[in-house]
Amino acid sequence: MRAGQNTMDVTSLRPATMEDARRLFDWVNDPAVLETKADTNSKIDWNVHCTWLSARLTDPDTYLAIIEVSGAAVGQVRLQPGPGGRHIDIFVAPGHRGRGIARAAVAHALSEIDERPVIAVVLDGNQGSHALFLSLGFAVKAKEEGRTIYEFGDAP
Ligand SMILES: CC(C)(COP(=O)(O)OP(=O)(O)OC[C@H]1O[C@@H](n2cnc3c(N)ncnc32)[C@H](O)[C@@H]1OP(=O)(O)O)[C@@H](O)C(=O)NCCC(=O)NCCS
Which of 38, 64, 138, 155 would you label with 114, given CA atoms 20 to 30 Å apart? Predict the structure, then answer.
């Protein structure tokens, strides 16, 4: 699955490569980002990260795109198979938030992949993510302790 085959007016997506390893590493290890992770909140080791990224980039079922604004990398959007559907993960660098970049990037990614449903797991307290997925038409599928499971599109 190739990311970023279309373009958006202001915000664009391009496929991630191994050259993005450092920026993805820095983003995922931001303490504020680790707190939003549903499955782990401990710092990720560089070698573990590189092995993970290499596997993601060669997995045909993973969609991993870098979000760019005016040619500068400002975030990432990733979809990959998980429990109940294709799970989405989104990040926009702090200095670029609140400008609709995440919404444009997720909407674009959803237009590029056909597989449904898409699942978002959002921790309680992550207000930006709750607002983001609701505004894009995700519906609450389940509420679990400390988190909400959102679903976009019908199950096959
Ligand atoms: C969540 C995140 C991706 C939002 O990125 P963004 O580019 O600022 O989002 P947008 O500007 O596209 O905003 C989308 C919607 O979310 C709302 N929103 C964004 N940040 C918000 C916040 N901190 N509190 C409340 N609402 C927020 C916007 O108002 C907008 O809603 P609206 O259409 O009703 O006005 C970004 O804050 C981030 O990267 N956070 C850390 C990583 C993370 O939590 N990822 C999600 C894990 S699933």
Answer: 38
d(CA 138, CA 17): 29
Rounded (to 5) percent helix, strand, coil in the chain: 35, 30, 35
- Give residue limits of the domains in the chain: 11-152
For residue range 103-156, list pLDDT tens digits in order: 999 999 999 999 999 999 999 999 999 999 999 999 999 999 999 999 999 765
Please tell us whether the domain made up of 11-152 is placed in CATH 2.60.120.10.
no
Ligand 1 centroid vs 150 CA: distance in angstroms? Answer: 15
pLDDT per residue as tens digits for the range 58-90: 999 999 999 999 899 999 999 999 999 999 999
**Ligand 1 mean position, distance from CA 128 (Å):** 4
Pocket of ligand 1 (CB under 6 A): 33, 36, 89-92, 97-103, 120, 122, 126-129, 131-132, 135
Q: What are the tokens at 73?
A: 């990398």
